[in-house]
Predict the 3D structure of the following.
Amino acid sequence: MSKVATRFAPSPTGALHIGGVRTALFNWLYSKNQKGTFHLRIEDTDKERSKEEYKIQIINSLKWIGIEHDGDEYIQSTKIEDHIKVANELLKNGNAYKCYCSSEEIEEQKKRAQQKKLPYIYNRKWRDVDEKDSPKDIEPVIRFKSKIEGSSILKDLVQGDVEIENNTIEDFIILRNDGTPTYNLSATVDDHQMGMTHIIRGDDHKINTFKQIQIYLAMGWEVPNFAHIPLIHTIEGKKLSKRDNASTLNDYSKIGIMPDALRNYLLRLGWSYQDKEIFNLDESIKFFNLEGIGKSPSKLDMSRILSMNEHYIKTINEQELFKSLVEYCDIYKEKINPDKKEKIKNSLSFLKNKAKTLEDIFNNAKYIILDKIDFNQDDLKLIDNKAKKIIQEFKEEISFIDILNRETLEPIINNLIKKNETNFKGVGQPLRIILTGSKFGPGLYDILISLGKVEVNIRLGNKIIR
């Protein structure tokens, strides 16, 4: 077989689903591991529901997580004539036939199967009928003449050998009565024309694979390798759908999950290599193989994603982390003023403390980023007369020092504790509230040093506590 070529083939009928992202990732990693090519095919033949905005979102989502396809996007709707041509060839060589059943007849067959509690399979009524006996007032569909005898075995690269009785595969439609091709025909023709060597997709496509292999054989084409990966389930064990929360990449990026962390999580979702958990991009490509994919569904675990993201926040180069934070704030929060950037950059070591997401870092840094302090009203009630006195005394004390650092601040804080017969919280809490708007947040010394003397003085003089 020629050089490895894989593809990801989403429909632009909605935002890209997290399960689709993992499928794309596995295809991309396998092709890169094998020094092959990875292609993106946009299956936009559903004209009613396909939208350009979804196509753009799919391409941007893949780029965001680090997946770049080779060559131009392959647009399925531009290849319809090729699909129709193959349907007519199958008709000509006796591997397909025209079916004149009315929609009422099909509904009646379905109803009977339902009553008998059997899966519906078209009864092959027109399979061997001479076309001259066909009605003239009905536009036929074209059905593929599936095998009736024996069984077929799929040598699946993930699931192993999968056997199916041929008579359970119906004579499926390849051209509708309006002349448009169906999924199984279009996908097969496209995969052949694109020279795909490996089709890696969800195991809900297994029955489609048996149908598509029959088209390959009927056309005398080389059959690619197939690998069916188990689906992703919710933590409750149900199949994950587009309607679930946190099902698209946008759901993750808006709370500040970083692309490298999510990619690492998705890589490990149903795939393993020894007992290794963290993979950089080069390692992902180097170690990825189909043998490491498990046969059971994986559960999407948000707590695990947050834990992975926290690991990346802690270990990433701070310059890179700062860049990611600025981009995140630009898109989802407040743009960071240029004059605040240096303060945040210098404070990242504590702002990222206990942060699981970029949103957590933003929340920790809000007291620097926002020009106006947003006071928590319940916390503000804690500023009683004693607290106001401590704030005033602290303001007077720092007027005698030039630079705020731990060495200059500690004696002042300790003196206030002693003087006011209180503890660290008694001094720290009112100062934190007046400086940040909340009793929660970074350590008091970190807040004071990050703001600097000029800004601290301005905030200590806030009229809200007078």
The chain has 18 helices and twelve strands.
